[in-house]
Amino acid sequence: MNINSIPKIKYGDSNQFFLLAGPCAIEGEEMAMRIAEKAVSATDKLKIPYVFKGSYRKANRSRIDSFTGIGDKKALQILRKVSETFDIPTITDIHSAEEANMAAEYVDILQIPAFLCRQTDILVAAAKTGKVVNIKKGQFLAPESMIFAINKVRDSGNDAVMVTDRGTMFGYQDLIVDYRGIPVMQKMGVPVVLDITHSLQQPNQSSGVTGGKPELIETIARAGIAAGCDGIFLETHFDPSNAKSDGANMLHLNYLETLLKKLTILRDAVLNLNSETGYKI
């Protein structure tokens, strides 16, 4: 698929990477609008195609007392308001086949969580909504295996599919990014996104709260751009330490524009190098 097929997407012909970014979870309207406003301002300046990300519910939590959401309909309505206010596309996760049609009424892209990327009924249901489908690669899957998930969407009559790498499990409490997976999955004819914040998670902590290494966000992002990824996924918040979900690995909102500016410069350098040498990185 071409990212210009995403409704409301801007700067699709800018030759920049595209960005999926926002809070881990929708905590309320004010916080969502505040994050969206900052992200829109930065991406407009840099001509980066932008999609606002926010989960209307967090279904995969370690502890039963973890924050899961403010209510499905309320959070989805906030996502719709973000889209209408800033004239941008939005993306959210779904967790079962039954949720596909519900979420599709409010957002432009349906995201399949990594742990659910092999679930045929969810992939088929998402495909049949006609929305763009973003499949996160399971932490347990080889990049080569993602063709089967992609084909489940395509065989259901929907070619608007992309994939996101969010790292691979390395032992019990760490993840690594294998950048070889980017060109491998690009050969499947889909845009490939690198999730730079979830790749830095440290799951399975004894506290039941996932840890992370946000100080390495720029390192992972720069390597992904150098390796030729089509898009970047990141979670950001104006107060990560008090975010209700995944705060340990989020980028502080104040640093977003600076990071994106560095990445656009690197992207230009990669494209120029490809042009001069005739060899695609």
Automatic annotation (TrEMBL):
Location in or out of the cell: Cytoplasm
Molecular function terms from GO: 3-deoxy-8-phosphooctulonate synthase activity
Pathway(s) it belongs to: Carbohydrate biosynthesis; 3-deoxy-D-manno-octulosonate biosynthesis; 3-deoxy-D-manno-octulosonate from D-ribulose 5-phosphate: step 2/3; Bacterial outer membrane biogenesis; lipopolysaccharide biosynthesis
This protein's GO CC annotations: cytoplasm
Coiled-coil annotated residue ranges, if any: none
EC number(s) per entry: 2.5.1.55
Keywords: Cytoplasm, Transferase
Family per similarity comment: Belongs to the KdsA family.
Protein name, as recorded: 3-deoxy-8-phosphooctulonate synthase
Source species: Thermophagus xiamenensis
